[in-house]
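Please fill in the sequence for the structure shown.

STRUCTURE ENCODING:
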């Protein structure tokens, strides 16, 4: 039992997908269910932290004791996270943020024609990179990476590029990992270069492990 070892800590977690509107009825999104981020938020609250969960649209119940802020688009998530970042001790970015949005959102439903339709996409701001560029002393930043190939190389490069203290790499290809599952297979990468590869575990247990490692780093 971990008790209330996160008492006094302010923890912000992002979770779920973002939705990028094309018109009033359609959007661009991904398969994230929010389970990993909700598990982290729930465990952090159980361990006594003051938790803010910035969540994209999910079907999940708000974990007990968690302050939930609902958003839809990546730009809304950017505003919700950046406006609360300064007060946080740990920021854990488990959300699957859309990298692109339709460059224009139509006011009325787009009507179909006979031929193909091309949609121009605009780049969304990178929330984690913005947090990393503006990290206050003592604040710890944890990112996530999910890839279909070259997972660990990509994860290592994200950890550096976005100035994270820790990065959780999870594969989409492994059985028991990825979207919607209750278990995860992850490699933890740390800014000091070391790595940790726990075996398959529940998302709740992985949440505790991530929080253990952040707490350990905060005491150093
Ligand atoms: O580079 P990539 O998007 O794969 O990085 C993944 C990490 O960055 C995740 O922690 C994700 O939540 C975060 N991210 C973000 N803002 C974006 C894209 C990704 O915070 N626009």
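FILLED IN BY: designer on duty
SEQUENCE:
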């Amino acid at each position: 039992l971990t008790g209330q070892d996160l008492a006094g800590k302010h923890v912000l977690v992002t979770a779920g997908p973002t939705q990028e509107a094309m018109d009033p009825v359609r959007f661009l999104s991904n398969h994230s269910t929010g389970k990993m981020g909700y598990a982290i938020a729930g465990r952090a609250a159980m361990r006594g932290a003051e938790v803010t969960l910035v969540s994209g649209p999910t079907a999940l119940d708000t974990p007990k004791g968690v302050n939930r802020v609902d958003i839809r688009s990546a730009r809304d998530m950017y505003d919700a996270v950046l406006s609360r970042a300064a007060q946080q001790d740990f920021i854990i970015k488990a959300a699957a943020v859309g990298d692109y949005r339709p460059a224009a959102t139509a006011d009325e439903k787009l009507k179909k024609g006979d031929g193909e339709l091309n949609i121009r996409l605009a780049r969304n701001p990178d929330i984690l990179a913005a947090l990393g560029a503006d990290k206050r002393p003592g604040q710890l930043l944890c990112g996530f990476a999910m890839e279909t190939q070259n997972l660990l190389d990509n994860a290592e490069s994200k950890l550096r590029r976005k100035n994270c203290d820790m990065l959780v790499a999870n594969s989409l290809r492994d059985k028991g990992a990825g979207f919607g599952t209750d278990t995860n297979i992850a490699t933890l990468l740390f800014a000091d270069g070391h790595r940790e590869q726990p075996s398959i575990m529940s998302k709740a247990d992985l949440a505790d492990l991530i929080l253990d490692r952040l707490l350990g780093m905060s005491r150093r």
